[in-house]
Predict the 3D structure of the following.
Amino acid sequence: MASKRNILYMGIDLGTTDLKICIVGARQQSIRAQVVRRLPVRCSENGGREQSLEKLDRAFRESIGELKNQLGDDWKKIQGIGVAAQAGSTIIADRRSGKAITPMILWNDGRAHERIHRLSLLKPRSFWRKHTLLEMPPAGLGRLLWLKESRPELFDEKNIHIGAGEYLYFKLTGTWLQDAGNALQIGSYDAARGELTQSLFDLIEVPLSFVAPLRFEHQTTPLSKSGARLLGLPDGIPIAGPYWDQEAGFMSAASASERPLQCSLGTAWVGNFILPKGLNGKSPYQLVVPAPVHSGKLVVQPLLTGNTAWDWALRETLGSEDKETLQQAANIFKRRLLPPRGLKVIPWFTQQNFFYQTEIGAGVIAGLRADMNRFEILRAVAAGMTFELRRVFDALKQTGTVDSLVLNGGACQAIYFRRLIKALFSPVPVNWQPGGGLAVSKGAICAFDPIAAQTRIRQIPESRHDESEDILRAYETYLNVFERVCGSIGAGKAFRIHKRLT
């Protein structure tokens, strides 16, 4: 058996827009090698969001080649691989070979919206809440219904429905497994019981055998012979996963404090935290799965905003989203952090339109004046996104359910977002993960080495008193605007705690 100092682990994060892989030494937090590959998304006017599996396969092969070049002979020291991926996407594949028949239809694809609405009318909210702890049908269930009606030939017993994680895991192991987060988002998981269920699939007349079995805790599967050829490693190496990217991200931050709220500020803004046994809470959009570390339930709470809104703001006010634009944005926020007091943006850009239920787009800009320039819109969008973070998780802060925040993802690399969030959550410690884009890939190796899975964090310093006061006053004004515009919309309810943590 090799000594610990000679062991390396590989963590893989197959995200919505990027493939990220890192190599970490045993019991070390430092990264030995890393690669990030952009994954192009095909967008269509009707809300379609797809990725080519051929391009994904090519990106994976090229990434492995690049990592081999970085490591040289040390490549052979890899003795464990963890796989994490964005959950809730849809691929129909051949069950025996794993060959994809469809492109990957991403979790944020909007073409099944009408089917989701139709399903919601079949059962009362109590039915959905009983099985999923959600108040509405899972989006993936509507997508399956849409596919079944448009391409019924796909729903053959020789095929299988999978997501991104299952696709890659099968390539490496020849075994079909899915994580609970993926199962929940496609409607095959009973969150209350913690097991796969036929109950929701009966509504669309699809057998439960059409999806992969559920992964059990941190189980591993040996690297197959074909997977070994793909990686240039010996077969039999244990592969952990597939993990939901949210649970892997949480595992990378789990040691930050006793009860951290890990906030992924990426394509979608999501907060991940553990509700210990005996503590209850709910929201319309919560996703609840078994805690990957400690005991209790991991709550994955998406916000109704994310970097889709921020990318829009950069593009519309500064012309693009490249590095030069990000530096220009940083200079704008150096001059002033907040927009004028009366200008507020509710950044629900990807949500159902208030006035036309068949349309997407519930973003609201309130308080525009003729003398305002585009930079004020940029400031207002940034402020609105962070105000949403505080609004949704306010109960966690007030009750002490969480004792720290850990920020990762693209937006947390910007100091202006960090300053806003720090002021909004003070005195709770707020940390961030420099280079946090690799947090998920690191967290994916937790089954092998919890120390190596941790990402280094930095604590954000306290804001100036006057700046904090300005931000908190602006937040209170935002709440007033939000209540007037969106207060009656159930989907926007914040996370609520039913029992105070003692």
In short: The mean pLDDT is 93.
